[in-house]
């Protein structure tokens, strides 16, 4: 008898079903009905959409709930190294990535229920989420939207404990629209009539207006960043404020001032979902939160060993102009505290605004090494990516790999140990973690 393997099951699905997204809920709804509608048997759900900050909000929400002693399931996408990262099942002492045998059995069961009908792999794997989360005990489930909101496969959740909309900017224009108000309308599609809504810090007043109007039309109790809650830095700490008062907390473990707003959205979301968070639990959450490939400092591993001695290495999967801005701001903060020359090692895919991403680093980065993203069919050739960086006003050169870039730096560097940002794509960041020997756990 052949032992089931989740990776083999998913590889088989990839040969049977199309890549991409289905902008309707018909297929996933049909499949879930065959499975007995497991999405209707979940613990209270925190449903998170947005362009940037979804993953950080999920990480903070998980940290808050677990610090308060709750058992929590978490679904995020995409994964970085292994498919299992998308499914963190509740466990005493902190959630654990799904065991391979449990994962593989759930995939096989869902595929059998689908009966070979036309569907996408993401829809099947979303149904797997609901199977796993409904059959394992927990007190809360955090579910991150994959793409958009209105037609995302996760949007079959009828009554979320809270819907969260994180910052919206231009991304996935081919699917969601070429204006920020159209994208905001798609993200707002996860709001459900009468269910609480938390709106995180928005970069666009137009997007904010669309979100508020949608929530009002659906009679959703709504709290808005900057109006009903906020967070700010004071004396090196984070102060969170809402109608219940102030919480003086440690600075979030995730670097960058943008994480204050992400943490605040998570606190507001967890409270709106009906959970009480003590000051002590919030303190613990800020110091224990973890989110790989989002301003993650790499301190050991095969690639780290190739870098110039004393180099400071950061990894971030942010891949659009909005993400570029917040990453650049986080690095500018590091520069204020501890000045070092900044070098980028970048790989991107062709569905993103590469020049817009690089523009955020003008005047901050000394040089860019561009590398191919071999983990995605949509990877931009390294020579083409170097041209995009130069269009943004940066000095750039193509190289064959991250290892090559680090060794070039090591062999030619003369001066203070550099600060290195590796990033530009989550596919790329995942490949870097795999090559470095430090996958998420």
From TrEMBL:
* InterPro entries for the chain: Folylpolyglutamate_synth, Folylpolyglutamate_synth_CS, Mur-like_cat_sf, Mur_ligase_C_dom_sf, Mur_ligase_cen
Gene3D superfamilies the UniProt entry points to: Mur ligase, C-terminal domain, Mur-like, catalytic domain
Record PROSITE patterns? FOLYLPOLYGLU_SYNT_2
Task: Output one GO MF annotation.
Answer: ligase activity
What is this enzyme's class at the first EC digit? ligase
**Which Pfam families does this entry report, sorted A to Z?**
Mur_ligase_M
What keywords is this UniProt entry annotated with? ATP-binding, Ligase, Magnesium, Metal-binding, Nucleotide-binding
Similarity remark:
Belongs to the folylpolyglutamate synthase family.
Protein name, UniProt field: Folylpolyglutamate synthase/dihydrofolate synthase family protein
